[in-house]
Amino acid sequence: MNAKISIDNLIEIVRTGGKIKTGVDVYNSKGILLLDKDILVEKVKILEILKDNGIKSVPVNTVFNGGLWDGNGNLMNVNSDGLIDFEDPDKQIILEPVIESPETDSIFPDVATNEIEMRLLEIEEIKKQATKKYYDAKNSIKKVLADIKNTGGQFDYVEVEANVSDLVDFLVIADNPFSYLTQEIFSYDDYLYNHSINVCAIGTAVVNRFNTHFSGVVDGLLKGHTPDIYNPFEKEGKNQNPSYVTYYKDELSDISLGFFLHDIGKIIVSDEILNKQGRLTALEFEEVKKHSYEYGVDLLDKNHLKNSVIRNIINYHHAPLYEGEERCYPTQAHHTRIPLYARICKLADIYDAMTSKRCYKEAINPINVVTQLFRTYAKKDRMLQYILHAFVKSIGIYPPGSIIYLRNGQMAYVLESDGPLVIPFTDDKEKTLKYKPDPININTSGIEESRKVDSRRSVKAPKDVYDMLPPYIKEITARS
Ligand SMILES: [Fe+2]
Ligand SMILES: [Fe+2]
């Protein structure tokens, strides 16, 4: 059952001893969460607060464990008109159905279903939180790099550690939440700040996914001494348990911190080289290389930081992942000895660099970047295959709230990255549709070729195409 019940009817049910669980989060028109989907409402006061916030009706979705119970604990049936039938026929009360009118609390009165409205608001709420976290993190890396410049190498490790742990707590609940915030980046400084946060966000999501989905398989392979799975822990010796599960659980926060600081050594490389838009000379490339194994590692020493995880990430995030991989450094690093988290850092690094829009290049569509990563690395060894699968599963190629193009030229708003499930909101000439179409799942078999994702075009943020957005998306989307 999925019905919208009037708030007055719900108050009546609770007043007579009944209980309610919506199964769907309830927001006000500004996107503020008023009632969590899992809360069992037993007090009239909660519903009165909703009413005071202008909520006239509330969805109840049994598919998501919502429901209505009468004073005796009997589940009540609600039909799609909002009519409520008590299980006990003697107590049958027909409550007034909600009459939808243009004056209802819905900010999108004629959107196809209530779930879409809720989903749009939910996406916007996550985006708002992500924006705040992103700017906090940006200030943190800005401060680290400025401190290094001003003091000749010192930075406040404790402060950056606290900031990253705050960021990581947020990342765990929202996969790749910062992809909403991609923007044209003109200065190298800004690129470096954004890149540090993105690599931390992507890398942390991949490590978490690897831990939960793949580490057991890889452990099994390690125990079986499968020749194409390398155990990078051998070199660390000291009776280290050669398990990807136990090892990474303990080190997770250090790994995220390492991702955040991976390019810290770039602050020592001259701006002239970093900002150069053409191809680097051999000498310049030699200088850039040093940001990892020389300048980055030196900065850790200067700050007396002995953490081997952070050190490995800084040292090896450009190391080869297979025999003979070119343009990798440090050259003496052998690919079988590169820790898993450093390999993940390298992939997150490449992914972010390619999907970012710079003043001199367009962003590449994420699906093409992932395809390229698979082509380059998946066949090299089985461990890389598992990492890449974790990568694809965790990054959300087309994140909810982003804008993509279909092959027929239509623009679409992504509701769920699974599929993806999208609302196409323009026609094939990029003219905004006057009606609100039903969402389509692009991955469904039978969908015409012309309605699949056009992977030659980059993913956009809603603000990039603000003028073309339909009113029901415009209303909830920030212009800048
Ligand atoms: Fe780097
Ligand atoms: Fe990097």
What are the defining features of this structure?
single chain, 480 residues, alpha+beta, 4-stranded antiparallel beta sheet, 13 helices, 12 strands, 43% helix, globular, binds fe (ii) ion
If you had to describe this structure to a student in words, what would you say it looks like?
The protein has 480 residues and is α+β, with helices and mostly antiparallel strands. It has helices at 7-15, 44-52, 114-151, 157-173, 188-223, 244-261, 271-274, 282-302, 308-316, 340-355, 366-378, 382-395, 471-474; strands spanning 2-6, 19-21, 26-27, 33-35, 57-61, 67-69, 77-78, 84-85, 403-405, 411-416, 421-424, 440-441. The chain folds into 3 domains: 2-105, no CATH class; 119-395, Hypothetical protein af1432; 403-474, no CATH class. The protein is 43% helix and 8% strand. The strands form 5 sheets. It has a 4-stranded antiparallel beta sheet, with helices on one face. A two-stranded antiparallel ribbon has the order 1-5. The chain is globular. It starts with a strand and ends in a 6-residue tail after the last helix. Mean pLDDT is 80; it is low at 86-113 and 233-240. The structure holds fe (ii) ion (2 copies). One fe (ii) ion binds next to α5.
